[in-house]
Structures are given as C-alpha cells and as structure tokens.
Design brief:
Elements lengths: L6 H7 L5 H16 L6 H15 L17 H26 L1 H4 L2 H4 L4 H14 L3 H6 L5 H10 L4 H25 L1 H10 L1 H30 L1
C-alpha cells in the first residue's frame, strides 16, 4: 500500500491503536447523531471501519509499540449497534413522555422545516410503527421520526424490534465493509482527497452560514 505513508493516513492510523478513545467517541457521536447533531452517523461508522482496517494491517500501519491494542471490527460493530438502538429508544421515550409539546417546542421545531415535519406525520400515520424502520434509513428524519413514534404511543417492544432490525442491517455492515475492503476505498480517498476536502469545506461553510443566518433572524425577531 504505497498510500499508507500519506500524512492524513499516518495521522489517522494512530487512533487505530487507541480503541478505548475510539469506542468512547463512537458512543458519543452515535448519541449526538440521534438527537439531530449535523454530522451523519454514517461518517462516524465509515471512520471507525477505516480505523479497524488499519489496525488489522499493522504491516502497513505500524503500531506505536509491539502488542498495542487495536480497534476491533467486531467490538466496534457491537458498540455502534448498541449505542444506536439505545439512543433511538431514548428519543422514542422522550416523545412518549412529553408528546407534541416537545416535538413542536420552538427550540426543537426551528431545526426542522414544515415540509419535513409534514413528511414525518404522513409516514407515521401511513406505516404505523413500521415507520421507525424507514426513519432509521433516512438521515435528517431520525430524530423527529422517533419522537413521533413515541408521541403516538406505538408499543415499545415493536419499536425496539423494528428499529433493531433496521440498525442491524445498516450499522454493523458499514463498519465491516470498510474494515474488510478498506484498501480500494483508501486508494480512492487518496486519489480524490482534494475533492473530498473541498466537499467537507463546503459542508462546513454551509453549516456556518446557516448558523449565522439563524442567529441573525433570531436577533431580528427579538428587536
């Protein structure tokens, strides 16, 4: 792997030998993603999969010392799956306990446009508890969707089963795919790293502009 010496991959590889830090960050990011943090959980899962790949290939990504612990693909997959289902269920419980007053609270509602909320309500009424499985595969709708499932008092066991099956399909598979097929993916990232960095930069710029716009509108309304 001639690309293994690239500075960005050398920097990333150090975390492949810090499993405790990575697992803790994985749990934290899964929880934040569940409550609407603007970083898709897929980014975290892909990153962890790459770290697991690096840890499984010490000949290309040398450890800091012999026998250093590594990010294990099986452990990471179990932790990610558990964190995702737990965080989804917490959101469901919040919706069940606090109902519409939480979903339409001004501090929550301002992050979700009317068309998004309309889609959530349509899906929950059309598909019932099975909508939670759809929300799991729909970034941006997970938080309000899971709140709505709780708000409508769908059975908790059914929510856990459907959401668990959906998470089992979507969460561990991403980590396993990256862990086992990391080489061609890293080659692709190396080849198009400037494009990837440009996209990341544009996303961050968009988030900054959106944050500044919201602050401006809020300040304008208070005056």
């Amino acid at each position: 792997m001639d690309f293994a010496s690239e500075p960005i991959f050398v920097w990333m590889s150090q975390f492949a030998y810090q499993p405790g830090t990575v697992y803790a960050a994985l749990i934290g990011m899964m929880m934040l993603s569940a409550v609407g943090f603007p970083l898709p959980e897929e980014v975290t899962l892909i990153s962890v999969g790459i770290l697991a790949f690096m840890g499984a290939n010490p000949e290309h990504f040398p450890p800091p010392y012999p026998g250093a612990p590594v990010v294990n693909v099986h452990t990471a997959s179990i932790i990610a799956f558990t964190a995702v289902v737990t965080s989804d269920f917490i959101i469901y419980l919040l919706g069940r306990v606090f109902g519409r007053k939480l979903l339409y609270h001004p501090r929550v509602h301002k992050f979700f446009p009317e068309d998004m909320m309309k889609r959530v309500e349509e899906w929950t009424h059309k598909y019932g508890a099975y909508a939670c499985g759809i929300f799991r595969f729909t970034p941006g709708l997970r938080f309000p969707g899971h709140l709505a499932c709780g708000m409508l008092h769908y059975p908790a066991w059914k929510f856990l089963v459907i959401d668990g099956i959906a998470a089992l399909i979507s969460v561990p598979t991403q980590i396993y795919l990256l862990a086992h097929y990391g080489e061609p993916i890293l080659k692709y990232l190396r080849q198009f790293k400037m494009v990837v960095l440009a996209i990341i930069g544009l996303v961050l710029l968009y988030m900054l502009i959106k944050w500044l716009r919201n602050r401006f509108l809020k300040a304008k309304l208070t005056h």
